[in-house]
Amino acid sequence: MRRITRPVKVGKITIGGKAPVSVQSMTKTDTRDVAATVAQIKELQSAGCEIIRCAVLDEEAARALKDIKAGIKIPLVADIHFSSKLAVLAIEAGADKIRINPGNIGSDLKVKEIISAAKSARVPIRIGVNAGSLEKYSGRQRHEGAAATAKKMVKKALSFIRFFEKNKFEDIVLSLKASDTLTTIEAYTRMAKECDYPFHVGVTEAGTISGGTIKSSVGIGVLLHSGIGDTIRVSLAGDPVEEIRVGYAILKTLKLREKGVDLIVCPTCGRCGVTLFPIAEEVERLVSGIARPLKIAVMGCVVNGPGEAGGADFGIACGKGSGLLFKNGKILRKVPEAGLVRELMKEINKLSKS
Questions:
Q1: Residue 189 CB coordination number (10 Å)
Q2: What is the rounded CA–CA span in Å between residue 25 and residue 241?
Q3: CATH number of 8-253, picked from 3.40.960.10, 3.20.20.20, 3.20.20.60, 1.10.260.40
Q4: DSSP 3-state assignment of 295?
């Protein structure tokens, strides 16, 4: 059962409450380059990104947010470190949410300046507590275990929340990220018992597309399966479009969002009479733009392909020289090997037109 959280509005998107788990990403462009940043955000929008975050490193970047926001259709979050002034400027430029780590902003007075500006503009704040920043104010030791680090993260997050609440600000989204998956899981699990603020969930600095996908899928997946998480960001060292793809794949696997194609592919064995992987990659490319939830199978054996993939809406079972095209577990016809993908797409396109 999903954890009950209070809803927080970020532009037109609601985080928490009964809203679906949303998928976020962060630009990798220089925010001061408006054209490049808008171009990347539009690419992410097309991939399904629902909230986008930009790094605000100086006043020029903060002011650029106004023009960036004018060119996009999804909520814009300003990522701020060390400066209350930049946070205020970002709010004035129209940011839909501010992300700060109150511990590196400076004095309580500086944090109050951000709270005051956000309150006036009705802009929510994500309080971000990262394991990597604990050494500065929580005495974290190197090689400390996941439980000990998570406990300190929760303690620090609670102190920030109390400060915000004392200043009559509760429009909060919370994150407790670590590059270690187990620490991340432990921190969010502990924090879920302490408050009802919505959580932004992710494993920070997860790694490359390959390794980072695994770490993120395990960390985010375990938490979501436990009912914890209201919005997610998969942090990958690579094309941010991959973050969106992986994010939706995680949600789709857990039946939390039904968007696009779920591709079932046979891992192959000695019975496979074709080179299957290029065929599967071609199908994956051709169906990548389909938003309708569909299950499509690409199997390497006519003996058990339709049976094993009987739950698929459409599928092909490839054999040497020819294969079978099937729909909802029933064989439609035998097709020459060279035409299998073409015939599969014909059937899929018929459905999209209906």
A1: 16
A2: 8
A3: 3.20.20.20
A4: strand
CA distance linking residue 45 with residue 57, whole number of Å: 23
| Cα–Cα nearest to 293, from 257, 260, 248 | 260
Query: pTM for this structure?
Result: 0.87
Q: Which tens digit of pLDDT belongs to each residue from 138-174?
A: 555 566 788 989 999 999 999 999 999 999 999 999 9
The whole-number pLDDT of residue 108 equals 94
Q: What CA–CA distance (Å, rounded) separates 212 from 74?
A: 25
- Locate the DSSP E strands across the chain: 8-10, 13-15, 22-26, 51-55, 76-79, 97-100, 125-130, 172-177, 200-201, 231-233, 261-265, 294-299, 314-318, 322-327, 330-336
What is the homologous superfamily of the domain 261-353 according to CATH?
A: Sulfite Reductase Hemoprotein, domain 1 (3.30.413.10)
All structural domains of the chain with their residue ranges: 8-253, 261-353
What is the average pLDDT score of the chain? 91
